[in-house]
Amino acid sequence: MLFRRAACLSLLISAAFVTTAHAVTVGREQDITDLKLGQRVQVDDGTCPAGQVKEVRGTKMTDKGVVRTSACVPRYGPKTK
Questions:
Q1: Is 63 part of any domain?
Q2: Contact (CB, 8 A) for 66 and 58
Q3: Residue 75: which residues within 8 A CB-CB, separation 6 or more?
Q4: 10 Å Cβ neighbour count for 81?
Q5: Is 2 within the bounds of a domain?
Q6: Interval 49-80: pLDDT, tens
Q7: What's the CA gap between 47 and 35, in Å, rounded?
């Protein structure tokens, strides 16, 4: 009985980590409303070369909020809208 509870608990915890590991994809950089420190958002706006997508990251906390940086990274998986 104790083993089943432990197995179920570890399954729920691993499912939570998997759902947070996926990056969010938006169509425009303006659609990112509140970027958190360390968060990564993929922007599919066509500014990067074929096979790549723009990744916006919250890199540093300042008095005015989170500083954003962006770079083109390889696209993983099929293109989604």
A1: yes
A2: yes
A3: 51, 52, 53
A4: 5
A5: no
A6: 999 999 999 999 999 999 999 999 998 876 66
A7: 20
